[in-house]
Fold these 4 entries.
Entry 1:
Amino acid sequence: MPEPTHVASGKVRELYALDDHRLLLVASDRISTFDVVLPTEIPDKGRVLTGLSGFWFALLHAIVPNHMLAIRDDGRSMECRRLEMLPIECVVRGYLAGSGWKDYQATGTTSGHRLPEGLRESEKLPAPIFTPATKAQSGHDENISRDEAAELVGAERLAEVERVCITLYKTAAEHAATRGIVIADTKFELGLDADGKLVLGDEALTPDSSRFWPADTYEPGRAQDSFDKQFVRDFCEQTGWDKTAPGPELPEDVVAHTRSKYIEAFERMTTIPFESYVETPNVVLG
């Protein structure tokens, strides 16, 4: 078999071409914050991202097809179908946090959605909302309205994307609730296959693409504890770092704590011991 050809590098992932129809998506242990990849890695983070994505792809495939073909034995590499990716980030928010909260504070809206007055930070919204964003080549993605998103992908396609993403979020949130986790919001990436059919790609419902909050400590009116890299962000904020490359080295306790949060998210969502996944990655596929 020919050697895979390196196609692209992201903050966390490496992308390789296997042939004209398949790609290999490799999740590294790199971690970024404030759009800078830090010099210290988080052991097993890439396995968590790949394993959780595989779990969700298997669980949600009845809603929309996905790009996954196989998870390799290293637990961090996923063979995928090639897709023509849509030029928007597909964000669904069930709670008011992050940039959605900032937009609401400034305007009472987010991505064109007029929200009720008097909402607090982290408050559950009356219903999940679809808030698309641009795909930034560098820096942060920027929230856009549905009308602006429709100009990029077409109104009919956008309506399909919104319906699919809301259904994916609701289904995942219901599952997570049984595991003691609130999915505050999440980002999906969708593309089109050779027949023009909508397909879920990239990663899905991981701590890197979602806000996971422990349900037992959830309390609106403040920022929440989370199963993601917030601990790393907090450390970096305390160092006086100017948020330009290179970022600060992470001390051992920050690395260990962050690794434990990623693994806890994996084990809670899947009910599979992480070591079992490391030994047999296909265990997440059911």
Entry 2:
Amino acid sequence: MTVAAVALIIDRGGLVAADAFLPHVEGTRRRPQRLRLAFVVFPSRQERRDPLRDGGLLGILGGERREDRLALCVVGLWRDPSGLHPKRVMLSMTAADGGNVGQRLVTLAAVCAVAAISTAAAAGSAKSIPNWAAPQIKTVVAHKLMDAKSVSKFHPNATLTNKTLTNLAADLKELGSSTPPGTDPGTTTTGTTTTGTTTTGTTTTTTTGSPSAPETMAQLDKSLVRAIGLGKAAKEFVQGAQAAGLAVPGRFGNEVVARLLGLRLNHPAAQDFLELRPQDPATRAEAAYSAAQILGFGPLVDSWQIAQVKSLAATFALPELNAWQSQILTVAFSKIGMPYIWGGTSDNTETEFGVTSRGGYDCSGFVWRVYKLQSYPDEGTLASTIQGRTTYQMSVEVPRSQRITFKKLEPADVIFFGSRGPKSSGAEVFHTAIYVGNGWFIQSSDEGVALAQLTGYYRQKFAWGRRPLREAGLEH
């Protein structure tokens, strides 16, 4: 029987709802059927290796995002008729910050693994690739972009070609200077403002060669960033990182800008096979989504989104970094633009829960890669400082006396976010990232691996940090 459910278990006197393991939200959105499991077997320890390949049921340890609400295939479970509470609960005889956190979360992870495998595999079937960008494709067709005659003939899963991207960039540049104020292209279904004709003088090219040559996701972002007049901003982000001594990939500035603008969509976990890395060929659906987002900005000269990115880029700078901070942040920055993948810990292909992804990271998987799976010369005990794979575990491994407050954050600190900010308990921590300095941090979240500012919502939800470099005796 396949049902929509949130797995619920009783573990050593504690009651743990599965949505405690699926943050960026404080509780489940709906009131699904709830189920109980009496017991589960889990590994006794973790080693320095890729836990999602070698850890069996330990593999389901990520999933920190709001969209991940899988239909769960339940084996050996029975319904909980009480329904319990719509909010997540963490009631236990042991304090949430106590030593049994890791064991409790591993148990929960195993339950999720048993529940998710069947439907995730079905969702990932190559025979049923969804047209996930249908609303955006409708917008693109309405504006006569991408040589699209109709929604039904758009071919969303076809590879984006050089010719199509070149024309799209030129047309978006023209539209951005002519779209009337007040227009909402995101909901337009009839009428156009321009034709799809390309003017050579405004063409933005990304590669040379055959017009039918495929374009990568990185080339898509580069072309669009330049088309909307943010090429200089992309360079300024690169210059700010390099001035601090960091080596960054060539796509760095463009990916920072594209993700600040929200040009990427985070697919649900069961559709992680749709996620594309920067080096992967882009699809027409991805291009349509990006184009619709840009059209939603209105006239580029009046766009607050464009103005904000320009302002951020012009002031982007990092503090002076010591050698170890530089190593950590160089590795972190090398992942820029990688997609968010539930349970992901690698740049390369992984198959988790029956769904194959090309590579990517969830929030704690990103931290795990940088600090646990990456090897550094003369690192000493650095790899063993972070022991737990989940955000929850990572956040409570250090005593309160060693937690870093907001005002004392330093580059390369691991930071945590909780539903009650600094007053959060370990049970309320839902997200983790790496602090960069001067109010910036790098994370894997809805935008994939991206830079973000520790302001607004993030500042409000900031709980505490920890300093693995100090824990390993490498602070200076």
Entry 3:
Amino acid sequence: MRSHSPRPVGKRPAIAVLVALVAFTAAACTSGGPQAGSAVAISSGSGSQAVPPPVVVRKNVMSMTTAEKTDFVSAVKKLKTTPAPNDTRVTNWYDHFVAENLSKLICWSATVNQGGYGNYGPDLLTWHRAFLLEFQDALTQVAGHPIPLPYWDWTDPASTAVVFADDFMGPSGKSGDNYVVTDGPFAKGQWAINVKGFTTDNPGQFDDLVRATGTIGDATELPAASDVQHALDRPLYDAAPFDPSSDSDSSFRAFLGGNIGASGTQCKEGIIRVVDASGSRLDTTVLRYVGGVNDDGHIGSLTDTATAPNDPVFWLVYANADRVAEAWWKNRKYQYLPESGGPNGANLNDVLYPYTDLTNGSMAKPAEQLGYSYDSLPTAGGVPETLTTVTTTTETATTHTTPTTTTTPTTTTTTPTTTTTNTTATTSTPTTRTSGSTTQ
């Protein structure tokens, strides 16, 4: 599917965050020099002769063998002990992804190619698609063989049971431990959280994973299959004004993004935030359900949008969101809106920062053209469609790479700290609480 060796890449705008006593900027970012990092090879070949990328199949966690689950967990944990290729913000490769995700919450300037937040507009699905590919490639490199990302079908209790079993992601935390994860491969003492979120949103600044499952009032249950079917029924990929306030009756992205009642976004203290969201649905509900809020009123690891990848369950959640998106796109000829005239970073041909050679349009195409497929796709009727092959168009292939950055910003707004966090998950009956955290 993709090249599995680090290579030099071109310039990209610098991320306005360094992990370990660095400042966050709310204004302009500078350009970083050539870096070497994990390659995101969307397709391979040269000249006019297209070479189809090898395709790996992303499975439902329920279909994984014991060996596959062990292999996936081992690769994830190995990233935590492997230096990040030319990313001096962090001390290991896994934390590179947490820092990269956090950078998308910074308020960008109007500088060319600095735009799109990867959470609150049309690039929600296209940016995460590129992000998942970069992570999948990193797993493959440290494992020495392909590691397809599995997905968690959060509408299926059986799939949920597999995710939080001791031999996979481990259970949630318990109230007596303030919801710190104490069992499974990512338990306290085995999984350190080094990249912390904004103190304004995440005052807990935990060193260990925290999963206070089901304790936030708008996310006490996981989404139902009918919610996915409603998402697949939306007629348009997105709708004006292309932010959290877009009409979710029309916009597939807005429905899947899950910010109910939002009036838009605002830049406050250098951080982009959703305004007036009264509830959540689909992927946002899943993150808030798993992360929850602990007995001190501090949000759990997955609830913190900025650093949600600190909990490896993040990748299973977004693999399923990408699977739902693939189902919608497959039935809508891979429509992407807006083509033009939308917010900076949201348009069809806008660069998917920080992937300077990728655009929204280059991600809105059949997954097999990007080197992967799913073992099944959901349908509006509720019956998964088992896939055997997907017809793709032949096109001149190019190699795309994922850069990293090491530039230090100058304008300070919010100062995060760097530490380590471990958590565990449990399925005990939670206490419902409310949280003032920003809804993703």
Entry 4:
Amino acid sequence: MVTAAIEISGLVKTYMLGDVRVEALKGVDLTILSGEFLAVMGPSGSGKSTLMNILGCLDRPTTGSYRLDGREVGELTRDGRAVIRRSRIGFVFQGFNLLPRLSALENVELPMIYDSTSADARRDRAGAALAAVGLEERAHHLPSQLSGGQQQRVAIARAIVNTPALLLADEPTGNLDSATSDEILGIFQRLNEERGITLVLVTHEPDISEYARRVIRFRDGVIVEDHPVASRRRSASPAGVSPG
């Protein structure tokens, strides 16, 4: 039986910009099953980025419920949410956010520095994560010595090094050409299928959303569409993801 990874009910997020009250989310209900690959679409200001921040425990809803693997996240302290971010969630962004003076391997090691993982274990796990995205031979290269696609692969390796159950990707192909985007989305597809990682991808591009299994569309803080992808696009890149 497939269980729910994410259960959202009546989610409201309100901001105050000076004296102006902004309702970014207006009572959103959403269930994402374990192992789903969901694309989130919508124009700027529609609420999709606010949702991602809440899913990633970077922000809290004003009202409503967010349950991750059956646990009510809104009741957690700041430290509790930080533990969830570190242990259960991986993040991939449009900007690769790599530290320029660290090698690819050292960048991937970063999430483990804060959880008392030994240096040898960090190197082994970081190396396995880089191998999973096909970059084991570039482990000791600096970001400036890597292409944009390779830098994004390092960022994905960093996101999966702690074996998260949930991977959040915010416009991860926004800085890449179409061929490289296809390779990156192929990695996401294989992580989803071979490791069972629940994956939520924010994108503005309809063709990018076709790599997912399901698409939701936001407008003015509410979900206005929710449907499976009828003709799913598959990556042309043949390489698999090593189990690591």
